Amino acid sequence: MEVQLVGEGHDDNAAVSIVPMTLAHIESFHRALDVVARERRYLSMLEAPPFEQTLQFAKGRIEKGDPGFVAVVGEKVVGWCDITRHDMPAHAHRGTLGMGILPIYRGRGLGLKLINAALARARSAGMVRVELSVHADNARAIALYDKVGFVREGVVRDAVRVDGEYRDAIMMAIIDRENAIKPDE
To answer: Sign of torsion, CA 112 59 26 163?
Structure first.
């Protein structure tokens, strides 16, 4: 899938592709993760983990077939959305969604394209429940999650503390029992 981005801060000919994450994307993904984390507003981490840890996480997720997509301009990852399936057998129908977009690429529809791609892959992989936690003051992300069908399930008060400031987190999930794996499967 290719998206044309035109406007302030973008090369008029810059095409953004939404593609499944591969091992070739991990180094650029790590840099993008670090940029978003260092904003100290959207993710629970304040900087990306060491590269080796990110490599092992991404490699393991790719090998397991967990849904993961990146938005790329040329070879540069400018956004991502992944869903990590829970490991325990009684929870294997569930996955946790994580995503982020570099600041200059926000507000251009990439989040919607990334999340739709990841959710479609999760459905085809038989995931029934996809859940997430979003900072309560992240109105743009909450609006996106509402738009694609996530439902608020609760609030975790003072879930995050950054620079001495506490923030609540909203727990959201989307459930699609049409994908339930039958007992004989």
So the answer is: positive
What is the predicted pLDDT for the residue at 177?
85
pLDDT at 1: 56
Give the integer Cα–Cα distance in Å for 143 and 92: 27
Q: What is the pLDDT of residue 136?
A: 97
Which region, left, alpha or beta, applies to residue 40 given φ > 0 means left and ψ of -120 to 50 means alpha? left
Pairing of strands 94-101, 129-135: parallel
Longest dimension (CA), the chain: 54
Q: What is the mean pLDDT of each run of 10 residues along the chain (185 residues)?
A: 45 78 96 97 94 95 95 96 94 96 95 97 94 96 97 97 95 88 54
Q: Which residue from 87, 137, 95 is spatially nearest to 115, judged by alpha carbons?
A: 95
Cα separation, 148 vs 115, whole angstroms: 8
User: What is the model's pTM?
Assistant: 0.88
Query: Residue 165 and residue 151: Cα distance in Å, rounded?
Result: 26
* Residue reference for tokens 């290719």: 2
Radius of gyration over every alpha carbon of the chain, rounded to an integer in angstroms: 16
Q: How far is CA 96 from the centre of its chain?
A: 9
Smallest CA-to-CA distance from 154 within 136, 139, 137 is with 136
Residue 150: name the closest of 131, 164, 127 by CA: 131
